[in-house]
Amino acid sequence: MSTPERKASRRVILALDSGQMGRDLQKEALRTCVHLASRLDILLIDPTDGAAPLPALLLLQLEHSGIDYRLAQVGGQLSEAVVRHLSRNRQPVTLIVADAAHLSDACRAALDAGAHELISLAAAPTGAPAPPPARTDTMTTSLYESSIRSLPLIHKGKVRDIYAVDDKRMLIVTTDRLSAFDVVMPTPIPGKGKVLTAMADFWFRKLAHILPNQLTGDAPEDVVAADEREQVAGRAIVVKRLKALPVEAIVRGYLVGSGWADYQKTGQVCGHVLPDRMQLADRLPEPIFTPSTKAAVGEHDENIDFERCQALLGRDLAMQVRDAAIALYTAAAEYALTRGIIIADTKFEFGLDENGTLTLIDEVLTPDSSRFWPLDEYRVGSNPPSYDKQYVRDWLSDSGWNKQPPGPQIPAEVVAKTAEKYAEALRRLTA
Fold first, then answer.
1. How confident is the model at residue 73, as a pLDDT?
2. In terms of C-beta distances under 8 Å and separation of at least 24 residues, what long-range contacts does 402-408 make, across chains too?
3. Contact at 8 Å (CB) between 407 and 189?
4. What is the mean pLDDT of the chain?
C-alpha cells in the first residue's frame, strides 16, 4: 500500500478493537494519524466478553501530538460499529482499522457505496529505510582522542575533534569522550561517538526539507590517510565550512532542568511568562525558544533572553534562528512520539554559508544535545529517566565530586549502563 495522501477535507476515523491493539499496532496507528489528521474520531469497540483496557500508549501519544481527537466507546462487533458510524456521515471519510481482513462483506460494501477510503494498519508502510542501529561490537572499543595527522587540527571540543580538509570542507570526528557539568570526564563511553554520529546523520536527512544542513555527502575515509580510516569509520562526517553563529538555539517543550528552576523562582523561563501552578515535567503550552551563549571548554553556557539574542545576531537573523529552531524541534518531537520517545528539550547550532543562508550545523537531536524521555514512563510531577548521560550525572552528583576539573574516573558498571542508554535511543528512533 502506498503512503496515504493527506486529505484535509475528509474526516479521519480510527476504529479499533481494544483487544487487538498491541504496542506495534498502536505505534503504526499514531504514525498514520499524525500524517493524515489534525482532528480525529476514535471508535473503540469493546469485545463482547467485556471491556478491554484502553490502548493507553496510543492515547498518551495522541495527547502529546497536538491532534484534536474524540473518543467513543461502542459495543458490538467491529464491522457493525463501523457501518453504524458511516451511516451517520454524509461525506466520505478516511477509515483506519488494524486489519481490513477482519471487516465483513457488508462493511466493505458500505465503504464502497459511500466512496470512503480504507487504510489497514497491518498493510501500512513502515517508511523509508532507516540507518541500521549501532552494532553491539562498537561497544567493545573506544576512541578518547583522535590523531589525524594527514589534516590540520582546527579545534578540539568537549566531544568532537575538527580538522580542515580544504578551504571549503572540514572533518568532524565524534569521539567517545563524555562531558558532564561542563567538565570532560577521563573515562570514555565505548561506542558513544558512533551512536551520536548515526543519530545526527539520521536527523540531518530527515529534517533537510525544513532547513539546509552542513553535510557534503563525502565519505570521511576518502579525506584521511589509509592508516587513519579506522579512526573515522562510523564516527565522522565531512561538512561545509560555514560561519558559526555565537548562540546555541535551545528549544524547550517541557518544564524541566534549569527552566524548572527558573520557573519556581520567577514564573518565567528566559523571559517567557508561563501559566501559574505548572509542575515539574509539565508540557509547555507551546515550544519556547531559550537561547544561550556558547562557552569554551571548562566554562558554563549562559542563558539569555531574546532581546540579548537579537543584540548578538541582529533582529532579522535572530528571528530566523528562533523560527527555524522551533520548526525543527516540532517536526522531530512529533516523529519521536511515534517511536515512544518524548523530546523534552534540545539544542541546535546554526551557521551561515557564503550567501548568508541559514544552515543547520554541529550535532542535532542526539542524547548529548537533547533530553529524551521514554513515553511510557512519563509522569507529570517527576523527572522521567533519560536516554542520555543523566545516568553518569546522577552518579557524579552522588559521588561527592565538587564538579570542578578534573573529573573522577567513572566505574565500569556506570559506563556500561550509559552506553546501553545511548544505543537504545538510537534503536528506538531509527529501527
1. 73
2. 403/181, 403/183, 404/183, 405/183, 405/298, 406/183, 406/186, 407/180, 407/183, 407/184, 407/185, 407/186, 408/185, 408/186
3. no
4. 84
- Counting Cβ atoms within 10 Å, is residue 75 exposed (0-12), middle (13-18) or buried (19+)? exposed
Integer Cα distance of 31 and 428 in angstroms: 14
Around Cβ 130, how many Cβ atoms within 10 Å? 15
Sequence letter at residue 302: E
- Take residue 258 and report the three cell numbers written for it: 534549569
Q: Tell me the average pLDDT across 78-103.
A: 80
Angle at which helices 390-399 and 412-430 pack, to 10 degrees?
160
pTM, two decimal places = 0.69
CB atoms within 10 A of CB 261: 11
Q: Which residues pair with 244 in a beta bridge?
A: 351
Q: Judge whether 341 and 57 are in contact, CB under 8 Å.
A: no
CA-closest candidate to residue 224, choices 175, 165, 168, 176: 165
DSSP assignment string, 153-215: EEEE-SSEEEEE-SSSEEEEEE-S--EETTEE-SS--TTHHHHHHHHHHHHHHHTTTTS-BSB
What are the backbone dihedrals phi and psi of residue 179, each rounded to the nearest 5 degrees, phi first? -110, 130
Assigned C-alpha cell, 49: 466478553
Q: Using one digit for the tens of pLDDT, what is the confidence trace for 124-182?
A: 444 333 333 333 333 447 899 999 999 999 999 899 999 999 999 999 999 999 998 88
As a whole number of angstroms, the distance between CA 237 and CA 153 comes to 15
Instruction: Name the burial class of residue 404, with classes exposed (0-12), middle (13-18) and buried (19+) by CB atoms within 10 angstroms of its CB.
Output: exposed
